[in-house]
Amino acid sequence: MPAQSFLHELVGSMSQGAAGNPTVAVMEAAFAHHGLHWRYINMEVTPADLGDAVRGARGMGFRGFNCSLPHKVAVIPHLDGLGESASIMGAVNCVVRREHRMIGENTDGKGFLKSLSTVIEPRGKSVALFGAGGAARAIAVELGLAGVKKIVVVNRSKARGAELVNLLREKLHLDAELVIWSGDYAIPAGTEVVINGTSIGLYDGDARVAVDLASLRPGTIAADVVFSPPRTRFLREAESRGCTAVDGLGMLVNQAIVGFEYWTGVTPDAEVMRRALESALGI
Q: Using CA atoms, how far apart are residues 232 and 242, in angstroms rounded to an integer?
């Protein structure tokens, strides 16, 4: 019999506020379930130490790592290349060692797209997206790459909203429109997917997304990036109007699935990962 190896394959996460990152529980549960001799390590890394941390990960043979705030853009000069969507949006949240190169990917939007695709095929659909921050930007790019017909970006800041719309038009040649969010937004007729891409509702089940409920039509897909609580007020109100809800917990699990596949080449058990996440969050 081969001798037991005491050397693990290493992955992890570099961020500030690392102690609050539940991804370690999700990944470790999947490694154990699939019998993989891997470890996931949360690492508190300051902006000043980011370059040293990436060099350290290279030197210690890390197979990859996640990048969370505030490193998603700053990490790029320390890498050897970018995947397609990461290059378009200019942000990285997952680094993958491919032979001797560290390649930056972005699984934020991929996780959302994987979750959304369980209820609807995005290609050819019209989308209304609340927000233009990091999560919304990643989602919009992945939806564009998936072939949606149109995205209406609804955002309070004109400058940030226009930046995202211009990116979608120029880099993806997408039919994109900006609406300045003031008061309750009425969803245009013909919209098939409505997404809350903001943090409204995070840890607050009563927080309200300013949307005209009468404009939410039965059969519309309502999706939220907020993962805690999974059933946000936005989703509860949308369901009361006959919409199909897609929660943010699924997006978070699917982000982890994509990263796990990048690193290990194994497609993990989604239910194992979701149960581990729910347990870690006390849901």
A: 16
Considering the candidates 72, 110, 125, 150, report the single residue annotated as catalytic: 72
Q: Is the pTM of this model over 0.70?
A: yes
Give the closest residue to 148 by CA, choosing from 125, 173, 174: 125
Beta carbons of 163 and 132 less than 8 angstroms apart: yes
- 2 pLDDT tier (thresholds 50, 70, 90): low
- Is 72 catalytic? The answer is yes
> How far apart are the C-alpha atoms of 266 and 38, rounded to whole Å?
12
Q: Is 33 left (phi over 0), alpha (psi -120 to 50) or beta?
A: alpha
In which element (H, E) is residue 64 found?
strand 64-67
What's the CA dihedral at 212, 217, 220, 221 to 10 degrees? 40
CA distance 229 to 101: 38
